[in-house]
Amino acid sequence: MSTATRSLPRTIGAHAILLTYTAIALFPVILVIMNSFKSRAGIFGAPLTPPTPGTFDLIGYTTVIGQGDFIHYFQNSLVVTVASLFFVLLFGAMAAFALSEYRFRGNTLMGLYLALGIMIPIRLGTVAILQLMVASGLVNTLTALILVYTAQGLPLAVFILSEFMKQVSDDLKNAGRIDGLSEYTIFFRLVLPLVRPSMATVAVFTMIPIWNDLWFPLILAPSEETKTVTLGAQLFLGQFVTNWNAILAALSLAIMPVLILYVIFSRQLIRGITSGAVK
Amino acid sequence: MAAEIRPKRPFRWHIGVFLAPALLVYTAIMILPLAGTLQLSLFRNIEQHQVFVGLQNFRTLFGDPNWSVNFWNALRNNTWFFIIHMLVQNPIGVMLAALLSSPRLRFSAFYRTAIFVPTILSFVIVGFAWKLILSPLWGVAPHLLDLVGLKSLFTPWLGKEEYALTALSLISVWQFVGIPMMLIYAALLSIPEEVIEAAECDGITGMSQFWKIKLPLILPSIGIISILTFVGNFNAFDLIYTAQGALAGPNYSTDILGTFLYRAFFGFQLQVGDPNMGAAIATMMFLIILGGVCVYLFLVQTRLRRYQF
C-alpha cells in the first residue's frame, strides 16, 4: 500500500468523524453511569459533570439493592443464559457436524430446514408457544425460557459452526477412524477442541439477545420467582419513575455486567464477525 | 469426504444421534408453534371451542374499523421505522466502516469497540436512558442544544405525536449502527490488495476509489444488511414497549406491528386479549417478512454479482 494516498488532512478528517461518532455512541452510557453516583441535587444541578466529593452519593444503589430483588433476577438471567448457551452449543455443534461431515439423503434439505429459523423470527410463533407451555405446565418456569432460547439460537449456530467444521482436516478424522475411534469420539475428542474459537464466537452471538430479551420473559415467565434481570429492570423502572437516583443506579447495574463482559470478549466477537463466517 | 455413497451400507445411526436433539428442539419449539400460529389464525373461540372460521379473522382485521385503522397505522409506522433505518443507519454504517478500513488508521480497534457498545445493551437500558436524556425534566438535551445555539429547536420529542416515531427510530439507529458497520468492515477487509493496487496504478484513489471500486464489491453485503434490517424492524417490539409502553403513545403514533400484536394477543387495559386475532396479526407479519425475504432471495441476490477472490 502506498502512503502517498494518505494525506494528513484526510487522516485528521477521518479521526474527527470517528471521534464524533464514538462520542455519540458512548455519551448516553457514560452520562447514565456518571450520574448514578450523584445526589439528586447533583443530578439535576449539573448533569454533565462527573461526581465531585460534594455531589457524590450512593443513595440510588442502596435503594435498588434494598427494594428490588435484583440479585435473584440476576441469578435467573444467569441460569437461563448459561443453560440455553450450553444446549445451543452442544446441539448446534452436533447437528453442524452431521451436516458437514456425512453425505446422506436429505442433507441439503435438512440444512435449509434448519436455516429457515435464521430469517423467520421465533417471536411470530408466540401465540402457539404460550399454548404449548400452558399445556405442558411450563409457564413461569425457567425451563420454558431455556427451551425457547435454545430453539431460537440453534439455526444460526448450526449455520456458522458447519462452515467452520468443513475446514477441519479430513486426514485427521480419517486417521482417527483407522485407529478405531468411534464417530462420537472423533466428534468430541478431535473436532470439538479444534473448533473451539468459532464456538466462542457463536456463544457471544447467542448470548447477547438472550440476556437482553424482554418479550419471552414478559409472556412466558413474568412471575416474581422467574423474572430475568431485563424484565425486573423494566418493571422497576416503571415503578420508580420519579426516583431518579434509583433509576440511574438500576440502569447502571444493568449496563455494567454486560459492558465488562463485552470489554473482555470484544476481541473475540469482532474477530468472529470479521472472520467471514457471517458475511 | 470420507463417506462415499456406496450401495448397501449399514444404517449410520450416529448421524441420527447427532442430528436428533437439534432437530427435536427446533421443530417442537419453533417450527410447530409457527405452523400452529398460522393455523390458529383460521379459528375462533366460540363458546370455549375453537371453531374453524376460514378467513373470518382476516376479514375482521381488514374490514372492522376497530382493527383495520390500528393495523394500517401500525404498518405505516413500521414502514417509516424501516425507511429511517435504511436512510440513516446503513449509510452511516457504511461510512464508518469505510473510514475504519483505511490503512494505517490508528486507534481503529478502539473506535470499533466503542461504536459497537450500544448494540450489546438491552432495549430496556437504551429506551430508558434516552427517555431520561430527552426528558425536559432533566434538561440534558436542551442544555446540549444550547451549547451549539439551537436551544429553540428543543421540544419533548418523545411526547409529541409528530416527532415521537422518528425520535424512536433514530434511537434504534443509534443502537444498531454497529451491525452494518461491522459487516461492511469485514467485507471491505476481504477486498484483496491487488484490486486496490491496480486501481491506484490507474490513478483512482480516495473518494472515487471508494465509489468506483469498493462500493460495487461490497454490494452483496449491503444486500444482506438490508434484509437483516427489514426482518429486525418488522419484528421490533422491545424499544417501543420500554420507551412508550404497550399503548405506543402518544395516541398510538409509535404503534408498530410488534406492539399491536402484543395488545391484540394479551389485551391491555379495557381491551380483552384475543389469541386468534393475535395469531392473525402474527400471520400478517409472517407474510410481510416472508415477502421481504423472497424479494431479497429472488430479485436482489440473483442480480448482485458475487466476486470470488
TrEMBL record, chain A:
Residues passing through the membrane, by range: 12-34, 78-99, 111-134, 146-165, 186-211, 244-265
UniProt KW keywords: Cell membrane, Membrane, Transmembrane, Transmembrane helix, Transport
Membrane-topology descriptor: Multi-pass membrane protein
CDD domains in alphabetical order: TM_PBP2
Cell compartment(s), UniProt: Cell membrane
Entry keyword Transmembrane helix: yes
Coiled coil feature spans: none
Pfam families tied to this protein: BPD_transp_1
UniProt domain ABC transmembrane type-1: residue ranges: 74-265
UniProt-listed GO biological process terms: transmembrane transport
Any one GO CC term of the record: plasma membrane
Family per record: Belongs to the binding-protein-dependent transport system permease family.
PANTHER family xrefs: ABC TRANSPORTER PERMEASE PROTEIN MG189-RELATED, ABC TRANSPORTER PERMEASE PROTEIN MG189-RELATED-RELATED
Descriptive protein name: Sugar ABC transporter permease
TrEMBL record, chain B:
Domain of life (superkingdom): Bacteria
UniProt domain ABC transmembrane type-1: residue ranges: 75-298
Pfam families xref list: BPD_transp_1
Cellular localisation: Cell membrane
GO cellular component terms listed in the entry, alphabetical order: plasma membrane
Keywords, alphabetical: Cell membrane, Membrane, Transmembrane, Transmembrane helix, Transport
Topology in the lipid bilayer: Multi-pass membrane protein
Entry's transmembrane regions: 12-35, 80-101, 113-133, 163-188, 217-237, 277-299
One of the GO BP terms on file: transmembrane transport
PROSITE patterns: ABC_TM1
Similarity field: Belongs to the binding-protein-dependent transport system permease family.
Designated name of the protein: ABC transporter permease
Species of origin: Mesorhizobium kowhaii
